[in-house]
């Protein structure tokens, strides 16, 4: 074998050896939270007053003209809200209605329409007056659908279809693709996620609970983008030991492991934000591709207007992060918020819901 051929083979070997590590990063712990003033260009806070106080944490959606709040708690309701925070219309869903409240799995947006998904595969579309338009059968049964445009959709099965072998289901220009095998040797745990998908750099990124890899769907296909190296703190094969709900509860109570809970937010071409669970504590991982560093923060704090701990965004869109805060949370921290913010609150603010809209600085 000639030296030249040997050199080429050695080069190929080392190139292949290096590939897995190109996207694997060890998290660097940062003790202080991210500050709104550090990452934000501007912050807008909307107080939303619904007829009855919103129970739990509603799903927030934003179209070009409205916000929508979808709550599933004591009641199941969809609220249409103007961009300045005024509630325009609301729909309550009952348990004996055509659209059964128990069957609703998601709400989605398509242009100027809002869709309510029933049982993971049937969407009932409403117009901007919240009048019912039509029904549509979706190509997949899934717990979470992410519509990009008329021709592209990516869906996350998340164990809703027990006949399906794949978690990621893609429809593009009439073609169907499936990827990311379901780990059927692990306990069948279905978790709620507000943002398993996010737009990033004209692509779509995806995070799945207990999977230490964040994926990207781009022109090369659906592939790994970031692997978080948790070392000895990783969950590894622990989920294979779980057989029933009490085992899963014991796992959560152990608080021994680090893992991704399945929430991701594309910020800009150089940055991706995602949630991390460290031994029972939720934190935020910020991946900077320019510096090739993965920093982990305890959360985000608004140090510009309200002095509230925002913890985690619900979703990212168009270089903006959106957070939801209940009036009760503000009431609990009333002594620490500045007078300038107190004067902005309504008399019944404790029964309101607040949307924090943070426009990000360029990286």
From TrEMBL:
PROSITE patterns: PROKAR_LIPOPROTEIN. The lineage of its organism: Bacteria, Pseudomonadati, Bacteroidota, Cytophagia, Cytophagales. This is 6-bladed beta-propeller protein. It holds the Pfam family DUF5128. It comes from Algoriphagus taiwanensis.
């Amino acid at each position: 074998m000639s030296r030249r051929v040997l050199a080429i083979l050695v080069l190929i070997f080392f190139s292949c050896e290096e590939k897995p590590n190109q996207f694997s990063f060890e998290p660097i712990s940062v003790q202080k939270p991210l500050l709104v003033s550090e990452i934000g260009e501007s912050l807008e806070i909307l107080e939303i007053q619904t007829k009855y106080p919103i129970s739990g944490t509603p799903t927030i959606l934003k179209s070009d003209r409205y916000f929508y709040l979808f709550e599933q708690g004591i009641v199941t309701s969809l609220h249409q809200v103007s961009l300045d925070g005024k509630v325009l219309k609301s729909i309550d869903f009952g348990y004996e209605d055509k659209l059964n409240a128990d069957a609703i799995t998601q709400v989605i947006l398509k242009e100027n329409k809002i869709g309510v998904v029933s049982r993971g595969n049937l969407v009932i579309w409403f117009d901007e007056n919240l009048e019912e338009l039509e029904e549509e059968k979706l190509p997949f049964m899934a717990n979470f659908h992410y519509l990009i445009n008329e021709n592209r959709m990516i869906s996350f099965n998340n164990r809703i279809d027990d006949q399906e072998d794949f978690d990621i289901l893609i429809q593009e220009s009439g073609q169907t693709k499936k990827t990311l095998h379901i780990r059927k040797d692990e306990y069948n745990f279905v978790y709620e996620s507000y943002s398993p998908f996010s737009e990033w750099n004209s692509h779509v990124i995806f995070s799945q609970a207990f999977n230490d890899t964040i994926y990207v769907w781009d022109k090369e296909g659906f592939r790994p983008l970031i692997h978080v190296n948790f070392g000895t703190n990783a969950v590894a094969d622990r989920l294979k030991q779980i057989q029933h709900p009490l085992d899963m509860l014991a796992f959560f109570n152990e608080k021994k492991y680090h893992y991704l809970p399945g929430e991701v937010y594309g910020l800009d071409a150089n940055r991706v934000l995602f949630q991390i669970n460290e031994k029972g504590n939720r934190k935020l991982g910020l991946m900077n591709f320019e510096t090739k560093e993965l920093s982990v923060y305890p959360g985000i704090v608004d140090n510009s207007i309200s002095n509230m701990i925002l913890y985690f965004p619900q979703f990212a869109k168009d270089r903006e992060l959106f957070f939801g805060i209940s009036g009760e949370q503000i009431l609990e921290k009333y002594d620490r918020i500045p007078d300038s913010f107190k004067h902005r609150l309504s008399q019944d603010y404790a029964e309101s819901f607040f949307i924090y809209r943070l426009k990000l600085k360029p990286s």
